[in-house]
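Backbone Fold Data
Goal — fold tokens
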Amino acid sequence: MINLLYCFDENYNIQAFLSMKSFIQHNNEEQININVIHNKPSTFIEYKDKISNLTNVSLRIKKFENKKKIPLTVADAHYSEATYYRIFLEDYLDYQTEHILYLDPDTICLKNVSRNYDDIIQKLIVNKYVLGAKTDGEQKDAPELFKKLNIKNKYFNAGVMFINLNEWRKIGLTKKLQNKILELGDNLSLADQDALNSYFDGEFYEIGEELNYYAKHDANNETIQYIDRNVSFLHYVGSTKPWTPYGGLDKVSNFYHRQHLDAFNKYHIKIEFKKGDITTLIKSILNLNILSIDKPLLYILNFLNVLKKTNKNN
């Protein structure tokens, strides 16, 4: 049995659905319990129905409410208030759930991880760790950030976390993290990830890179082959998201595109900067970069359809 947790708002409904779909596809021999904390659960109904109809899968959605009125400020445009929801998990998960795997909605599963899950959870329990995560950097990499957060050891990425909920509850971590958010105030630059790191200061179980591999822009063939062979979770961090024209016209985005094509028979394209996005597409055609994706002609047609709808809405 694998327990999953996703926390997101309506802007990430499609991405979260594709992440869940990819996970179920590669772990369909396990009972998978998916938990969602969402600000507007009604907007996810159509995707919930698709997931709930699958065998060996249960999906529970809870509506997020900031009952403590903690200021959930976001300094980085790539984050939203929803990134804070995961620290409130203690208030939304059944007490019978003793362990869970948290995934960011922009994470695609590429392999079966049931053995990883069981092994890491067992190590968390034996060593009384609250969570397992991948190190993002050390003090020498970002001295100012470490100083602001008052940490000395390593800093982890919170996009993939294996969590020992018994230890989390035992120390009352949800309340401690709320206090940490208030304490850090304007020193928070990466939202709750900073608060988590400030609290743990390196006291977490280290997971392998293959369980939280960053999808780097301009990936070469060697990188793609490495991902195919080794990576379990591909995490689309940063601004070059695969649903944007700039990030989507890249070999590494095919892993995301394939999930969307399989589900909807079209590319997921979000046009936000019309002139810039059109320029990006034209350049990719002229320099043949568009050939990096699996179905370039379909991408162009889908782009034009989205552009047409965008013009109508404006």
Observations:
- The longest helix spans residues 296-313.
- The longest strand covers residues 154-164.
